[in-house]
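tool_call: predict_structure(chain=1)
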Amino acid sequence: KYRDTYFGVTPAEAARATVIHTAYAPGGGLRYWGGEAALSFHITDAWQTIFDVGYHSLDSDLADSPVVKASGDPDQVSAGITVTYTFNP
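tool_result:
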């Protein structure tokens, strides 16, 4: 149901859409695959920072969706930095 909701296109939707004109019904399976890595540094007992980076790629069935082809990219890279403070460490 998730795959149909976000990546599928019904014939009625394709008929009234301005960008996507092809109906599409994705099959079942994984949503995406990928990996993430993170490094954590304790600056002091109270302060900590975390650096993370990740890569995810949509499953081939979802990557073929006209929704993705019209408005997205099946490959996504993410990165982040988090700084935390702990009260009364």
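agent: The longest strand covers residues 47-58. Proceeding to next step.
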